[in-house]
Amino acid sequence: MRQHTSTSRGRPGGVLECDAGRPASTPGCGLADCDGTTTLITDLPYGPEAAEVARGAVALALHGTEADVLADARLIGSELATNAFVSGSPPLVLCVDRRRLATGDLEVEITVTDGGCSRPAPHAPPAPHEQAESGRGLVIVDALADAWSLTTGTNRSRAWCRLTRGAPSSSADA
């Protein structure tokens, strides 16, 4: 899928998004399993442990998913949680939506919201210096996700991404 990047400067903060097909709002709160969709929503600690808690929550939400999808989703969840802790303010909330599409493909959406930040979203994922120990989070998300967005504001920031993976092949297809 070809990704489209656009930026909006019309409100405080800013928006960085890849793919215009993102959802219009953050999913509702709760845990649901209906219409083939499973949603897990959890608070994350406001601290460096947010990444570890996010990885565990993503693993729980995607239990039984193919190993490569699970690995990508756990890494993305960890990076989004870390960015929210480092750049945002409390509260941090993680939402993981998992659904099987009519085509048999798996679609996973991961959203992390926080209490906001005063800096606008970058125009593109910043390229960290080669020796830098941090600053690769959005670059990783951009590389792994099929679509993603980052919206920052003084009262709320939201990082969202979508992974779509093909239906698992059976040995009978070989």
From TrEMBL:
The keyword Nucleotide-binding applies. Pfam families: HATPase_c_2. The keyword DNA damage does not apply. Residues 52-153 form the Histidine kinase/HSP90-like ATPase domain. GO terms for molecular function: ATP binding. Keywords: ATP-binding, Kinase, Nucleotide-binding, Serine/threonine-protein kinase, Transferase. It comes from the Bacteria. This is ATP-binding protein. It comes from Streptomyces kebangsaanensis.
